[in-house]
Design goal:
It is built from seven helices and eight strands. By secondary structure, it is of the alpha+beta class.
Length: about 280
């Protein structure tokens, strides 16, 4: 009987001694919950101009980090070996980080892309050797639809580490067309004819004004570069360019301007037959 009473007294004393630490742990974790919620809201408000996925990701990251710190401090209050726990978590984190480093790179790059916003959904871009229209952006990958109607999913790490050409960043875009004219042509007249033809193409902007220059001496003629600007938000690049090419050709034909093309002459030399010996 005395043994039982002694055991119960020991349990009571242990429980009484454990209670302050337990209460402190509960209070600390409760405070961590409140702090995590407040911090998540603060981060969400601070990043309100960012993408919704970025706000959600950052809010969850702050919440998890706050709760982990609160849990570690709370466990320390009840006598748990926090040092060993932290070391174990660190080793686990290192192992997972090494195993999932590619995923981690894509996530970080995705967050940076969503924050920096070098392009939007619907923009026409060229990146990592692909050209097309952006159809989706998330924290892992960017999807584009190529001119051939194919879907290409590019990891965000590749997108962020490569040069990005955004053809939709500005509404106006300059187009250059090059045509060769014969060496016998009056180049001043050629420039006037080409400029007049380009000005009449639907979709070509008046300002900045079209321009034409002689750029080089080619193998079969003088290369003439014609430049014009168009509004991508109002006109199709392919349609305006096609119209400009047809206008230049028709204007050259009407004005009698020679548009030479490379000609290769093959001469076959026939040797007289030899008399048999």
């Amino acid at each position: 009987m005395d043994v039982i009473l002694t055991y119960l007294d020991g349990m009571r004393e242990g429980f009484v001694g454990f209670m302050p630490g337990l209460v402190a742990a509960i209070v600390i974790f409760a405070v961590a919950l409140v702090v995590a919620r407040v911090a998540a809201r603060a981060v969400s408000r601070a990043s309100r101009k960012a993408d919704a996925e970025v706000r959600t990701f950052l809010s969850r990251l702050v919440t998890v980090a706050t709760l982990v710190v609160g849990a570690v401090v709370a466990l320390d209050q009840v006598g748990v070996n926090v040092g060993g726990l932290v070391a174990g978590l660190g080793l686990l984190g290192f192992t997972l980080g090494f195993a999932l480093q590619d995923i981690g790179k894509n996530l970080v790059a995705g967050v940076l892309l969503l924050v920096q916003r070098p392009f939007e959904i619907g923009d026409s871009i060229e990146v990592a050797g692909y050209t097309g229209t952006v159809t989706d952006i998330d924290v892992r990958a960017t999807s584009i639809k190529t001119l051939n109607g194919l879907q290409v999913i590019i990891p965000n790490a590749d997108v962020h580490s490569n040069a990005i050409t955004n053809y939709s960043a500005f509404p106006s875009r300059r187009v250059q067309l090059t045509a060769a004219v014969g060496y016998e042509e009056d180049l001043t007249r050629v420039l006037d004819v080409f400029l007049e033809a380009i000005r009449g193409v639907q979709g070509v902007l008046e300002e900045p004004a079209p321009a034409a220059h002689c750029s080089s001496l080619g193998a079969s003629g003088v290369d003439v570069d014609t430049y014009f600007w168009m509004d991508q938000s109002q006109s199709s690049l392919l349609e305006v360019t096609s119209g400009a090419v047809m206008a230049l050709k028709e204007a050259a034909e009407s004005a009698g301007i020679n548009l030479p093309y490379p000609i290769q002459t093959v001469r076959v030399r026939q040797t007289p037959p030899t008399e048999p010996l």
